[in-house]
Write a structure and sequence with these properties.
The complex is a heterodimer of chains A (236) and B (539).
Chain A lengths: L2 E3 L5 E4 L6 E2 L40 E8 L2 E7 L2 H14 L2 E9 L12 E6 L5 E5 L5 E10 L5 E6 L4 E3 L3 H6 L2 H4 L17 E3 L14 H4 L8 E3 L5
Parallel strand pairs in A: 2-10, 8-12
Antiparallel strand pairs in A: 1-7, 2-3, 4-5, 5-8, 6-7, 6-9, 9-10, 9-11
Chain B lengths: L1 H6 L8 E9 L16 H23 L6 E5 L1 H7 L2 H24 L4 H24 L5 H9 L3 E4 L15 H19 L5 E2 L10 H7 L4 E4 L1 H5 L13 E3 L5 E4 L2 H8 L18 H4 L2 H4 L31 H29 L5 E7 L10 H14 L4 E3 L2 H7 L2 E5 L23 H18 L5 H17 L2 H9 L3 H23 L5 H10 L13
Parallel strand pairs in B: 1-2, 1-8, 1-9, 2-3, 4-5, 5-7, 6-10
Antiparallel strand pairs in B: 6-7
Helix pairs in contact in B: 2-5, 2-14, 4-5, 7-8, 13-14, 16-17, 16-19, 17-19, 17-20, 18-19
């Protein structure tokens, strides 16, 4: 999966049921198909009955979901009907069709009027269905879409994530490298170090350094601009 | 409320306030299909080591007329298990067995006074647990917590229905609402009133959640420190005063990092002191298998029994014997140190704030007694020292603080959790991310079904209600947490898959109009949480 910056191109929607293209539409809800293997369980004592653990691997529908994991990563998963995956494989070999996950920054009031939102494309394997994506900016919202590009570099939309992923402020991640913040999880006495393993796709080869901001006691309580106040609406 | 304030001595102003919050939670683990299930020990250990000692300590404070206000979150899953007759009977059996083991240990250690004293301590403690459990509260210790709440000592708050991690549910707002509304209904059934506060599962907050909290009548919640520090706009008082959320009139209280670190940090925290009892050396692993076999897993898997004879000891490889009196002396010293540091903190903060600061100190309840054996005694010393040995700080609950200081800044707290890294790294991880495809699918199907079946037949209604139970049980954040942490993973995976498979089968049967009443009966008796649930909560 090689990350690359995207090149602006026209968007279409791919109808996965018949392989035709149509104007963009919202992503659909998930449904079912396939089986996921289950673990063997050692039971202790007398077992009177047992429930099945057989569950589908996919739901055989077309959708894309995204969840913000931390200021540096979003988790993305999607589903495509089995026949469509097969078609993708064939088209890739014959026509160079490539499954693409596209991230587009969503403009907010914090951005200046002349700011151009950045866009990133990630080439996907047709068998792949989940991804942890390293995001370059925080805090920012990313809109995600799944599509294909052909040899003529046209992006054809398959589906969009129903909601954008709001990546939170970045500063804490810097602190998470220190012992202070590693004690934050009261349920883990031996917290594992932050892991950036090979399942994470970096969409920039070199991440920009982010300024560290130590939060000292004085910093925490420094006066801030207060825009509104409220009193409790009811009697306590 | 005013009566309570007078009773607990909180009616005179203080230089600063401390809100101690204990979060008591266990996932729903109940296995009627097995005579013995190792995972049910999670509850039994917590009962003996944490819940019963805390209850006894608080009752003693009441008897000694110690002014005190404490916040306790009891999750709906834990309340259901504490209220369950099968688990109550099994706990009593477990307790009797442990008393028998402690008696054997007293005999075994009779010639070594150092260990014998510790064996006697366990015996006495177990007898006390059995007495409180069986004689005082007839097997249901929820009654004890309810009494403490009714007498103005405790403020019991709720949590998500099955401790579902809400930031991963935000794609389906109805699922978030269902977790919260079911939790509120469950709380009402146990405590005869509505909860005013909530401990968000894993302290997980995302902007906009406050609207759902307000809908179900929740007035306040807690966030991790950076949830408030990164709020928009930045709160004037940092985490030392609550803020009201932008989208709904719900107050957010931020966790104080200093008081958290003092108690829990593996490096700097009190529980790591060499005088305290070591958690890991347990006779379940140390003693001869023939001797210990009746008290561990019936198939011979060694487990913790709770009887441990050594202290942490420091860097020495050879552990030294536990000395209870020394450990208690250190616990008292640590309580004094904690109080002194909070006084200093409050004094400094009060000098630069326009109101008395509030130091919010939430902890996992199981820290007190289970992980940190002397934790309940430390808490006891702390409560009494704050009451009688100083005048600058007072214990308070969030609702009391809001009663005293109803005017607060309006901010939008940021996405945060109290997990490692401060966001969702624990619950969205390469080891557990596979669950979300299924959970989101189930949530969408549940919402659709709830809207579709407006007037179902009796069996359809029971099926829909059980689907709601299975979905909520699958959503428990505990399973993802366990998968990520790598212990008992098989159990967590199995539980998640079972609930998903149960849900999908019920859904399929419902859609095809061929419901298997026997299957519904079995699930209703097995996963019997929330007997009054109404699936329409998803509509």
């Amino acid at each position: 999966m090689r990350p690359k910056h995207s090149v602006p191109c026209q968007e279409h929607t791919v109808d996965v049921d018949n392989g035709t293209t149509a104007p963009c539409a919202e992503s659909q809800s998930p449904q079912n198909a396939g089986q996921q293997p289950h673990d063997s369980i050692v039971f202790t004592g007398q077992t009177r009955y047992q429930f099945s653990t057989d569950i589908p691997r996919y739901y055989n529908k077309t959708y894309l979901c995204v969840l913000a994991r931390n200021p540096n990563q979003v988790f993305v998963y999607w589903d495509l009907p089995a026949f469509f995956r097969e078609k993708l494989k064939r088209d890739r070999d014959l026509h160079g069709t490539q499954l693409i996950l596209r991230l587009t920054e969503v403009l907010s009031a914090a951005h200046g009027a002349d700011y151009l939102p950045e866009r990133y494309d990630i080439e996907l394997d047709s068998e792949c269905s989940t991804l942890h994506v390293a995001t370059p900016h925080a805090p920012v919202c990313y809109a995600l879409s799944l599509g294909i590009t052909t040899e003529r570099n046209t992006f054809r939309l398959i589906c969009r994530a129903a909601s954008a992923a709001g990546v939170p402020q970045h500063d804490l991640h810097e602190q998470a490298q220190t012992k202070e913040m590693q004690t934050g999880d009261v349920r883990s006495k031996n917290p594992l170090p932050y892991r950036n393993d090979n399942t994470v796709v970096n969409i920039r080869s070199v991440n920009e350094p982010y300024a560290r901001r130590a939060i000292a006691a004085e910093d925490r309580i420094r006066p801030a601009t207060i825009t509104s106040w409220s009193t409790s609406p009811g009697k306590w | 409320m005013n009566t309570q304030l007078t009773k607990t001595g909180n009616d005179t102003p203080a230089l600063g306030y401390i809100a101690l919050m204990l979060h008591a939670h266990l996932p729903f683990v109940r296995h009627p299909e097995n005579d013995y299930m190792m995972e049910e020990n999670w509850l039994f250990e917590a009962m003996t080591e944490t819940y019963l000692p805390l209850l006894a300590m608080l009752e003693n404070c009441v008897e000694d007329q110690v002014p005190l206000r404490l916040t306790l979150s009891l999750t709906p899953t834990l309340c259901t298990m504490l209220n369950d007759s099968l688990l109550q009977n099994r706990y009593l059996q477990h307790c009797n067995k442990m008393i028998e083991l402690a008696e054997k240990e007293m005999e075994r250690t009779a010639k070594t006074p150092t260990y014998h004293r510790t064996a006697c301590m366990y015996h006495e403690k177990l007898l006390s647990c059995r007495y409180i459990f069986e004689q005082r509260f007839g097997g249901n210790i929820l009654k004890g917590f309810k009494l403490l709440q009714d007498s103005g000592i405790l403020e019991i708050i709720t949590c998500g229905a099955t401790h579902g991690y809400l930031p991963t549910m935000q794609l389906n707002p109805n699922a978030v609402h269902a977790q919260l509304a079911t939790a509120v209904a469950s709380y009402h059934s146990f405590f005869g009133r509505d909860p005013i506060g909530i401990w968000l599962p894993e302290c997980g907050f995302y902007p906009g959640l406050e609207k759902h909290l307000a809908t179900v009548g929740i007035r306040y919640f807690f966030t991790e420190t950076h949830g408030l520090l990164f709020a928009d706009p930045q709160p004037q008082h940092g985490v030392y005063a609550p803020v009201y959320c932008k989208e709904a009139p719900v107050a957010a209280f931020g966790r104080d990092a200093e008081s958290s670190r003092a108690v829990w940090s593996a490096q700097e925290g009190y529980p790591g002191h060499p005088a305290y009892r070591d958690f890991y050396r347990d006779i379940g692993f140390d003693l001869d298998i023939d001797y210990i076999k009746p008290y561990i897993d019936p198939i011979g898997i060694r487990i913790n029994t709770g009887i441990k004879y050594y202290r942490i000891t420091g860097d020495d490889k050879q552990k030294k014997p536990y000395d209870r009196s020394t450990a208690l002396r250190i616990a008292a010293e640590h309580a004094g140190n904690f109080m002194f540091n909070r006084e200093t903190q409050a004094r400094y903060l009060a000098s630069i704030m326009d109101r008395p600061p509030l130091i919010v100190a939430p902890y996992d309840a199981k820290l007190f007694g289970h992980w940190w054996y002397e934790g309940p005694e430390w808490l006891n010393f702390l409560i009494r020292k704050i009451a009688f040995e100083q005048q600058s700080i007072k214990l308070i609950t969030p609702s009391d603080y809001l009663h005293l200081y109803p005017e607060n800044q309006v901010c939008e707290p940021s996405f945060s959790s109290w997990g490692e890294g401060g966001y969702s790294d624990v619950w969205i991880h390469e080891s557990n991310d596979w669950i979300y495809r299924h959970l989101h699918h189930m949530e969408a199907e549940m919402v659709e079904a709830a809207k579709l079946y407006e007037t179902p037949e009796a069996l359809q209604k029971r099926t829909l209600n059980q689907m709601a139970r299975e979905l909520m049980l699958a959503e428990s954040s505990d399973w993802a947490f366990i998968m990520k942490n790598g212990t008992m993973v098989q159990y967590a995976v199995r539980r998640t898959k079972e609930h998903i498979a149960n849900f999908l089968r019920l859904l399929d049967d419902l859609k095809k109009n061929r419901i298997d009443a026997n299957f519904v009966n079995l699930l209703e008796s097995h996963n019997n949480i929330f007997p009054e649930i109404d699936y329409r909560v998803y509509a």
